[in-house]
Amino acid sequence: xxxxxxxxxxxxxxxxxxxxxxxxxxxxxxxxxxxxxxxxxxxxxxxxxxxxxxxxxxxxxxxxxxxxxxxxxxxxxxxxxxxxxxxxxxxxxxxxxxxxxxxxxxxxxxxxxxxxxxxxxxxxxxxxxxxxxxxxxxxxxxxxxxxxxxxxxxxxxxxxxxxxxxxxxxxxxxxxxxxxxxxxxxxxxxxxxxxxxxxxxxxxxxxxxxxxxxxxxxxxxxxxxxxxxxxxxxxxxxxxxxxxxxxxxxxxxxxxxxxxxxxxxxxxxxxxxxxxxxxxxxxxxxxxxxxxxxxxxxxxxxxxxxxxxxxxxxxxxxxxxxxxxxxxxxxxxxxxxxxxxxxxxxx
Length: 347
Hints:
Layout (H helix, E strand, L loop, with lengths): L2 H23 L7 H11 L13 E5 L5 H8 L6 E4 L2 E3 L5 E2 L6 H10 L4 E2 L2 E4 L6 H5 L2 H13 L6 E5 L11 H14 L4 E7 L9 H10 L2 E5 L16 H10 L7 E6 L2 E4 L4 E4 L1 H6 L6 E5 L4 E5 L4 E3 L3 H13 L3 E5 L6 H6 L1
Parallel strand pairs: 1-2, 1-16, 2-5, 3-6, 6-7, 7-8, 8-9, 9-10, 10-16
Antiparallel strand pairs: 3-4, 11-12, 11-15, 13-14, 14-15
Helix pairs in contact: 3-4, 7-8, 9-11
């Protein structure tokens, strides 16, 4: 055997050994729909286990999707903060939502993880024509503080949700900042969490405004889902490059920022486009669908001749968790009840 052949066999052998090593070190995650459905059945038989990603997280649950209550209790050991979407402040500064507060769930989730923080969402309904007058009305501040005081021993803070915060520079930013400063001061040691839309261009927010907002908030949620720049045929949820663009854009800010991961998707037919959640995925006849991976967005599609479904798959989830971890950030999920247990096992 010539020296060349010996060298060639040596190289081939080394490549095979390296491939076997990498394969043995990799976590096997299902991709095809049938595999996902089979692995989901296995996941449901498993205990929660500890976090696989040692980064901060924040989970929403909703009263209209009660599966979130069950899943967040079962996987409470993996969850740092949980936000029930219970409350809204109406235009007349009256709180709505107390009728759906789930006391039993709060007791059970704290029992499952005594360190978990319950930070309910308070959605403020504002009118564009009178937005500034409304936030300058002392009654709005008093209404929110009274709510927190009513549940003093159960809530660890509040999460303020209003789309106007994402358009803060189009209004009087100073008035909004002052309102949030007053709110934070009256919360004493309770946490204040804010939320902003993900960026689509670098000029979307003024640097000076972000500095002020991030200084007030204990955490700020950056909504890297509900992607808006789409053609008619697109079903994009959260394109990987867009997530990366957001992580890079906010690198200069050292405050605690969490980036969004959707647990929902879309189903598109010839006639309409509707929301789609994990329980629906598990009911599909896998033999009627092919699974596609969109390399440009790192997203999954489940398709046949009649329907196209865009819904996170395990690869979708792991890709985003890995890059968020790489940037030293945390993540939040909208919303816990729309996912499947396989997702929770990966977290």
